[in-house]
Amino acid sequence: MKSILFKYMSKFTSLTEEQQQTIANEIKIDELKKGTILFRQGDVPTKCYFVLSGCIRQYSVDENGKEVTSNFYTEEQAIAVFNNHKLDKSSDYTFLCLEDSILVVGDLAIEQNMYTKYTQLEVMTRKMIEENFANVQDEFATFIASTPEERFKKLLIKRPQLIDRVPQHQLASYLGITPESLSRIKKRLEIDSK
C-alpha cells in the first residue's frame, strides 16, 4: 500500500528513498470499515486524508433533507476541506467510506511541524492541491456545459470504476440527475453500442 504514497512522493518531490521511508514510518495509516464516517457536515475537521485503497463519498444534506453527492474519492486522491475562510471552520460535507478503505491520515494540528521537519512535504502538498484544483475546475466547466448523457459518457471515460463501486442513486446525484434518468441513459447507451 505504501507504494502508492511513494509514487506520489516521487512525482512531487526529490526526496530520496530513505527520506520517503522515514516519512512513511511517521505517518498514520488507518484501515476503516465500510460505513465509517470521516467527519460530518457541521463538524470542524481536524484531519486530512489520502486514499490508498477504497472509495469515499462526499455529500451534503440540503434544507429539505435530501442528500446531494458532490464527489467520490478513490485510490491516489487526497481529501481535505478548505474551510478557513468560514468563521466557524465547519465542513459543508460529510465524508463516508463506501468500501473498506485504507487511508493515510494527516493530523492538521501537527501539519506545520511535519512541513518544518520535511520541507518537501509542503511542496508536495501544494503541488497535489494545484493539480486537484485544476481537475476540479475542468470538471466543473464540463459539468455545467454538458447534458446528463454527456456527463455520464465523460464519467465512463474518466472514472469508469465508479459505475460498479457506487450505488446508482448516489451516482445519479453526483451527475445531477434522477436514478430513473440514469437508468434510461444506461439503456440508451447499451442500445447505441450494439
UniProtKB/TrEMBL annotation:
Pfam families: cNMP_binding (PF00027). Residues 11-57 form the Cyclic nucleotide-binding domain. InterPro entries: cNMP-bd_dom (IPR000595), cNMP-bd_dom_sf (IPR018490), RmlC-like_jellyroll (IPR014710). CDD domains: CAP_ED. Keywords: Activator, Kinase, Transferase. One of its GO terms (molecular function) is kinase activity. This is cAMP-binding domain of CRP or a regulatory subunit of cAMP-dependent protein kinases. It comes from Psychrobacillus psychrotolerans. The lineage of its organism: Bacteria, Bacillati, Bacillota, Bacilli, Bacillales.
